[in-house]
Amino acid sequence: MKRENALLRLSTGIAEAESETDVCSAVVAGLYDAALGYDFVAVLLVDQATGDRVLVASEGWKDAPPGLRIRPGQGLSELPLLDGRIHYTPRVTEETRYLPTRNEGSEADVPILANRELVGVLVVESNRPDAFDEDDLKILTAAANQAGIAIGRARLLRAERARADEQEALRATMADLAGRLDLGTLLKAVLERAVRLLGVSHGELAIYDAETEELEIVANHNIGRKDTTGTRMKLGEGAMGHAARTHEPLLIPDYREWSGRSAQYAAVDFHAVMVAPLLIGGHLVGAIAFMDKDPARQFGPEDLRLLNLFAPQAAIAIENARLFTAAQHQRQYFQELVDNNPVAIVTLNEHHDVVSCNPSFEKLYGYTQAEVVGRNLDDLITTEASRAEAVRYTKQALEQRPVEVISQRRHKDGTLVDVEVLGVPVIVNGKRVGLMALYHDITALLKARREAEEASRAKSQFLASVSHELRTPLNAIIGYSELLGEEVEELGVAQLGDDLGRIHASGRLLLSLINDILDLSKVEAGKMEIHCETFPLAPLVKEAAATVGPLVEKNANRLVVEGAAAAGTMHADRTKLMQMLLNLLSNACKFTRQGTITFSVSRDGADGDGRVVFRVRDTGIGMTEEQMGKLFQAFSQAEASTASRYGGTGLGLAITKRFSRLMDGDVVVESTPGTGSTFTLTLPAVVRDSAPAGALGGD
Question: Could you identify which of 372, 405, 436, 679 might form a hypothetical disulfide with 354, taking C-beta atoms 3.0 to 4.6 angstroms apart as the criterion?
């Protein structure tokens, strides 16, 4: 009856035990009962990492070393672990496996199975040899079975609690990281959380720079004396570089012996290392590494499982922070551009109310930002006369039709400001949310322009007046020189005839120059008129070629005319066209010696339609890009030395350019130094009788 009560207490104790250690203690306490008569009871559990049997609980040996370890290959208690059966030794001293301890009698060693896995041994000893019978072995087997069930249950419960704790720790970690958007703070927090979660003493975190294809250490935890922050590694370099390149985690039992060790970490004394890439899908964000100061610490599947749970969430948190930081930097960059822009900038919502403005806007109109935000822009800076126009422009910009106009807007004090206005819609994610208006103060510019135009008109009027006054006496000089020339010829005084010829030629040259100046001043003053007529081109081309004949022969050149017969007719100002052609031909003759000048005419389209193209191509000295840049400017030649060497005033090509624009055409040049130049004059086949003011645009 006493034994039955003892066994009942044993079963009850095992059933009430919660932890693995409690189960072992309950088994030992229940069997070490006077009613059962055992002298020593112990439970040893197997250390899965080393295979050692570790003493967890015992009774009957007062001097039992705490945490006693028995290595594989030693002691009788290993026998059940080898075959999974109970082993009874009637006389322990007769066995070679016997380890001299407290007992010299008999011993029963019973395997403990938890979830079909051998997890330990129940050791029961008696001081007497041959002390155990069949009933004892049955009792011990039953106790070991109950212990195995209870240990399995405790381990499952511990695993579930551990997983729940892990999930809660992971959830809390991710909640904490998700709330951090400052990248620097987040990176440190990620590493600290990971170190605590895995229970290690050392860690490093690197982020991936896609531009350089390098990893950069951005945070470390307890990595020796050297601060590794800022260290950069190529893909494939060291443990983190290897994990980043392969996109796979890496477990290294002893980093000191690992062949892939980075030279940058040659002085670091670590043993086991665990590394994992930080990935979002296939996109590499960085890498994280862990080490521990305990040489016996080895990373296993459980550590890797935890890391695989943590790493993807950490990668997402880091990437979110990076994107947020980049967005903040970009926002700050554009805000600096707006705030420091000399142009007044204001943003409006769809109701035309001001959302924000920059300091230049405040300066231009005299309002502070606090005074304008939330108010209708047109109420602030327009007059009654200009309000309707301004509202129309605002609506136009909101309709995604950009506005670019010159107008006037009202200052806070009521004065008017000349401004160039640019309005563009603001589109976010395909949705129109407002518009941005830019105001460039052009008051000083318009004033300077008006003054320049007035000065130009005064200059042109002066030149026209002076030229007109000079033409009358020049015509008289030219006329009298011709009359005197005839009289001298009749008198037979040849010497006087040569002198009068030079006077006559100089007068003609001066008259031509005055006519050019007069033409140029009329064009710039907007008073030049064109008188169009319809005429055949072939006679015009022939006349132009004949006129420049003496200039061609002067420098031993050859003139080739092409396409005149098929050129057809043209409706234009014949006189001005002739003047343009003579300017181009005389220019080619001047800068070509013993070469060829080709004068061609063609047309694009039939008679009465399309454009007529005149080309003058020479084999002369040619020009550089810089020289061509100032070719059509009045009183300018390709080089300063050109006028002294070849002569000329630099007006002919400038007048040609302006006459061509006056007739809705243009003249362009192509040239290569030392090879020659080609001037192309293109005009409409039918020129309008009056050209619009815009046709006089600058070169």
Answer: 372
